[in-house]
Write a structure and sequence with these properties.
210 residues, alpha/beta, Rossmann fold, globular
């Protein structure tokens, strides 16, 4: 199997690309950059190479307090969290504005699903993802996004993976390590090394099941 393992940054990717483990697959490692713009462009370049499977992994912030710092989760669907408009005390999506059909492929009711999770690691929690170009760091933004999207986690690239892979028909999975809770920004509460270490182990275990 031609398998691509991708992450936003070299810091995330190095946690696994420099780790030796046994596999029968042809594995290559790629960074796709931070944020929606870079990620969509780089992931499309990778999709054109027609891999059999793409694994995206990295860190994420959690809106869901039942998730533990350092826990690894599977993202089952994604929404775009800051594509649309603000209208006083509410957020409006492109669909709300009448600019996009909520079921325009590959969206289903404004959501980018992952239909390739039949053999997902069953011991990991399934979560809903929200992708933004500006991560939430103040109480008002957090409240608005929680009320609008009901997402469990926030990242800056997850929806790009779902969008590109669905467009190209490439099976994929998104695994994220929870590095922090989404709260008014306080990096002293973050644990990126733990999130990456645990996520790396889950990625390796998943590869060995393919």
């Amino acid at each position: 199997m031609k398998l691509f393992v991708v992450a936003a940054t070299s810091m995330e990717l190095d946690s696994i690309s420099k780790y030796t483990f046994e596999s029968n697959h042809e594995i290559s490692y790629h960074t796709h950059g931070i944020g929606i713009l870079q990620s969509c462009f780089q992931l499309q370049k990778l999709a054109i190479q027609k891999p059999d499977f793409i694994i995206q992994f990295g860190i994420a912030g959690s809106y869901n307090q039942t998730l533990s710092i350092g826990e690894t989760v599977i993202v089952v669907n994604e929404q775009l969290g800051d594509c649309g408009a603000e209208d006083h005390e509410q957020l409006l999506t492109l669909n709300d504005l009448g600019l996009q059909n909520k079921n325009e492929y590959p969206f289903e009711n404004n959501v980018l699903q992952n239909p390739f999770l039949k053999n997902h690691p069953s011991h990991l929690k399934k979560v809903y993802g929200l992708t933004v170009n500006l991560t939430a760091g103040n109480a008002d933004t957090i409240r608005l996004r929680k009320n609008k999207f009901n997402a469990d986690i926030e990242s800056m690239e997850g929806a790009c993976l779902h969008y590109v892979c669905l467009q190209y028909g490439i099976p994929f999975i998104q695994l994220r390590g929870i590095s922090n809770y989404v709260e008014p920004r306080n990096k002293s509460n973050w644990n990126i090394p733990l999130a990456l270490s645990n996520c790396k182990e889950e990625v390796i275990q998943f590869i060995q099941t393919l």
